[in-house]
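Q: I'm writing up a methods section and want to include an example of the input and output format. Could you take the sequence below and give the corresponding predicted structure tokens, formatted cleanly so I can copy it straight into the document?
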Amino acid sequence: MVCLGLLAPFLLGNLLLRFFLVRNDAAGKMLRLSLSGGLGLGLTSCAFFLWRYFGGVDPYAYARGESVTAFLLLLIGFYLARKNNDNDEPLSFNVNPRNTSGEIPPLSGEVRRGGLSLSPPLAPPERARTLAVAFGAVMLLALAGFVTHYLSRPHGHWDAWMNWNLRARFLFLGGADWRDGFSSAVASSQPDYPLLVQASVARLWAFGQTEATPTLAGALVAAVFTFSTPFVLLSVFACAGRWGRGLVAGILAIGARLYLDEGVGQCADVPLSFFMLATLAWCVPHSLRSRFEDKPSNVIPAEAGIQEGESTPAPPDSRLRGNDESEIFRAGHAVFPAGIFCALAAWTKNEGMVFALCTASVLFAFMWKTAGVKQAAKSCGLFAIAALPVALVVVLFKLRIAPVNEIVARQGGEQLLQQFLTPSRYWLTFSAIIKHIAIFGRGLLPLAVGYFFLCRSVRFNPALIVVILTLCCYFMVYIATPLELSWHLNTSLDRLLVQLWPVFLLGLGWDKSVAKADCC
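A: Here is the clean output for your methods example:
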């Protein structure tokens, strides 16, 4: 029964993504499926928390209500799928408006069906078969390692005991006194952390009708996020025809020992990395059809992204100045789902709030540079509107439930100033970050950089800027921390790198063809 609790989130996420993603080739379906589970778990965790906050006591009553909702969503999904199939028009190719000979041109332009722009189906090239076998083997090995670790340590790591699963038990077993689990008396267990993971685990217990086997729910939530992330990376690059690059990125993501270790540990760092990646990955595979759809001659050829190392030519009348990658941020249909994922990152962990601020800043800066302040305000407004419902849940939790963060509560103005004026803290923090980056993944990081440099894809782009900016914010938090600095660095820095690892891989492979690949 616990496994059935995953059905409703998956249906909800899949249904929502169908409104934005209608590409039906292998890459598009993979992208939608890999994002659906995490999106649905994030939204249902918000619903479970709100139900608890506004007086819900019996978790089984919530499970019954959500089961009815899942059934209705399933009916709606079937109806929309059937209606879409009935209304499909024959494929028509609109590559050049001057072509009146009636001859069908090659599959190198835009394809339209039912008024929606679709890219020609892209299949993995022959040379990617070896990488596909390697990707499958690595995923199977990771799954075997995940199951083995779960059987030996079913409760996860220490952090899961003292925080994530502890709060899940209060949400599930606490009855009317569930708020006692967020008392400042247990400040060392981080009671101010947002509740996406904790509420998801408690919600699955409600579907299981028992808490006799509590470990399975936490492992399932961890598995969804751990194994979805490599497929998100793969599908994003595959949407641009970069199957080889996507397979390598997926292998590197799941192949990092720390990443898999944190995933099976049932903490929130891997779920946070999923939402960080989803925020930026959703923007990547959308072209600016809103700008060029009335100019078929300017459609970006889809086949241009098939050969590794080739760059996609910019549209002739493009008014971009320098950074072609930033063009994706000018499509409203791209920033709206990104706003939802970004808000869910903030609902996952405190670090997600830092990421949300950095992403919004980068988004506005790129929009302002390429399209002007008016277009930047419009798209960022859509981003904020999409993020608002989940953001309000985060604000409600922070203001009405969570105590003050331990680091903030233990700080005084004089002590904070003294820490910022101590040069040794800067050197200690900087050297620790460099050391942990150098040994991250046991050599996978330089391997990743080397591979993508050979692909000639490494360049300054929004994803890498977000990674750098977020890492700088983490740096300043370490400078300001009232905790013993060496201990704080050694116990938390690896987890911060795990959060940024998938986004870093996305940024390494983000060239012009990936930025302009068409997914909807």
